[in-house]
Amino acid sequence: MYQLKKNILVIDRDKLVCKIIKLFLENTGKYRVKYSTDITKGVMSATSKRVALILLDDRVETSDGSNLMDHMLSTLKRPVPLLPTGAAIDRARLKMAHIELNTLFNISVLKQIDSLVR
Predict the structure, then answer these.
(1) Tens digit of each residue's pLDDT (9 = 90 or more) over 63-85
(2) pTM for this prediction
(3) Contact 53, 116 (CB under 8 A)
(4) Are strands 82-84 and 31-36 parallel, antiparallel or unpaired?
């Protein structure tokens, strides 16, 4: 039976982080992932497109100086789960030459994502 893939949006200035998240989640076969490394465009996508989950860098500030997570919570017109990418990825590991997806995304993170997009 064909199952519709859930749409996930990633907003993070680090393109490598975005690509790794996209690769990992799309390889599960459950998700279609779009990402934005431009914070303003990412916020616009979040408010205009139908997404099941938004992964975002909660350490980033918006152009007006507010925290991105707080800004998203006040901007979204419908409830969408938000998950900070800082909680999912140890950025220091991204600097390593050999990136192992299983160490960046452990099973508990994937289970958390699965539970949020149901």
Answers:
(1) 766 777 777 778 887 788 887 77
(2) 0.73
(3) yes
(4) unpaired
Please provide residue 79's backbone torsions phi and psi, each rounded to the nearest 5 degrees: -70, 125
For the chain, domains (ranges, CATH) are 6-116 (3.40.50.2300)
Question: What is the DSSP track for 35-50?
Answer: EESSHHHHHHHHHHS-
Q: Tell me the Ramachandran region of residue 61: left when phi exceeds 0, alpha when psi lies from -120 to 50, beta otherwise.
A: beta
User: How many Cα atoms occupy the beta-carbon half-sphere of 33 within 13 Å?
Assistant: 24
- Residue 98 has what pLDDT? 38
Q: What is the pLDDT of residue 60?
A: 73
Among residues 7, 62, 63, 57, the alpha carbon closest in space to that of 34 is found at 7
Q: Please name the residue that has the structure tokens 């390889």.
A: 27
Measured CA angle at 35 (ends 8, 104), to 5 deg: 80
Below-50 pLDDT ranges, the chain: 87-104
